[in-house]
Design a protein that fits this description.
Strand order of the largest sheet: 11-10-9-8-7-6-5-12
Number of helices: 12
Order of helices and strands: EEHEEEHEHEHEHEHEHEHHHEHH
Largest sheet: 8 strands, parallel
Radius of gyration: 20 Å
Distance between the termini: 44 Å
Shape: globular
Helix content: 25-40%
Strand content: 5-15%
Number of strands: 12
Length: 369
């Protein structure tokens, strides 16, 4: 059970701790509903960060976890990377802690976040959870840099500043897997990789990965790595049953040729592949539902029908099958998927134990092609 509230997040400086409020701004009441929701979301993402100080928590007995290795590294991870982008944004602190507890209890050990998620609050909440549970050595942290407004881009100065800021928020002395969140075309790639050389050499960063890089830039990076600079060992990219083309092209060829571990994000197509949305009547006013609505068409409903049939055959949730399909694709090590409630974690983690038959794969491939 989670003890201690984690409602807000902030940075402690000596005896002073920044505070933030969750009270709504009365000035927003005059705005139309849609504009008010957008303004409240923006305010939530830019609220000051606070470090949490909760009492130690004893975790329940943990299930044995399935593990995969990221490329040729020493990182062994559960085949589901728990996406933590919602922590401190649409998911409050107490709920985030409960989600992390459930993920851990089910054998999970791989957490995916970024320095820009909820203006750093996601990292803070993860750090608070690791500290109060005493599990840092048993967790693989994957975080991304380059989009936080305090250290934007991939210049050497921004990289060093971003890494040390993430270390402080996470409450750790090293990051296991660090991603360049997006390519920065304004900075020569050799300069960005050069800045990482020192951070990897001193143990501050274990391994380097890319997120949202093109096939061409990954090839350029590999040439630079051949000349002694740090190399990418993994790549995050959008990939799911509703969006296959962007990955299954030159990007797939390059990742296979380089032996990169693939971590698909938007793995559940903004929640559409959970089976939650079958018609416009099922949509809510949330940002996620708005994005999922793009798949409410003839093609999307056909995919969903096949997905739900196979899920029923296996006795699992549709989201479990959607993730199991990704895990059966060549090069995929761990899809990234998030939960907004602890009970949703079970279906995500369960994908690692599902073995889809040949007929299942053929049907899913055909309907989603």
């Amino acid at each position: 059970m989670v003890t201690g509230g984690v409602a807000g997040v902030g940075v402690q400086n000596g005896d002073r701790t920044a505070t933030s409020t969750t009270e709504p701004d009365p000035r927003l009441d005059v705005l139309p509903l849609e504009q008010r929701a957008a303004a409240e979301a923006l305010a939530l993402q830019t609220r000051p960060v606070q470090v949490q100080h909760t009492a130690p928590v004893r975790l329940p007995k943990r299930a044995a976890g399935i593990r995969r290795t990221i490329g040729d590294t020493d990182l062994t991870v559960h085949p589901l990377a728990l996406g933590c982008s919602v922590f401190g944004w649409t998911t409050d602190g107490d709920t985030a802690m409960a989600i992390l507890d459930r993920h851990w209890e089910l054998g999970g050990n791989f957490l995916d976040t970024a320095d820009s998620y909820a203006a750093g609050r996601s990292e803070v909440l993860i750090g608070s959870w690791m500290r109060t549970r005493g599990v840092r050595d048993d967790v693989v942290i994957s975080t991304k840099i380059g989009r936080n407004r305090d250290n934007p881009g991939l210049s050497p100065r921004s990289i060093v500043g971003a890494v040390h800021a993430s270390l402080e928020r996470l409450g750790t002395d090293h990051i296991d897997l660090l991603h360049f969140h997006f390519d920065d075309l304004d900075v020569p790639l050799e300069e960005s990789l050069g800045a990482m050389e020192m951070l990897i050499a001193d143990g501050t960063v274990g391994h380097l990965a890319a997120s949202n890089f093109t096939a061409e830039r990954l090839m350029e990076a590999r040439v630079l790595a051949a000349n002694g600079l740090p190399r990418f060992v993994a790549v995050e990219t959008p990939y799911n049953l509703m969006n296959r083309v962007s990955y299954e092209s030159s990007l797939a060829l390059v990742t296979r040729a380089q032996g990169l571990a693939v971590m698909p994000y938007f793995a559940l197509a903004h929640g559409f592949l959970t089976g939650k949305y079958h018609s416009k009547a099922d949509l809510t006013d949330s940002i996620r539902a708005g994005r999922a609505s793009a798949y409410l068409n003839r093609t999307g409903l056909k995919v969903l029908a096949v997905l739900e049939r196979i899920a029923e055959d296996h006795g699992v949730a549709p989201s479990t099958i959607a993730l199991a399909w990704l895990l059966a694709r060549e090069g995929v090590v761990a899809p990234v998927a998030s939960a907004s409630r602890p009970d949703q974690v079970d279906a995500l983690v369960a994908a690692a134990a599902v073995r889809l038959g040949r007929a299942d794969m053929v049907d899913l491939d055909k309907v989603s092609a």
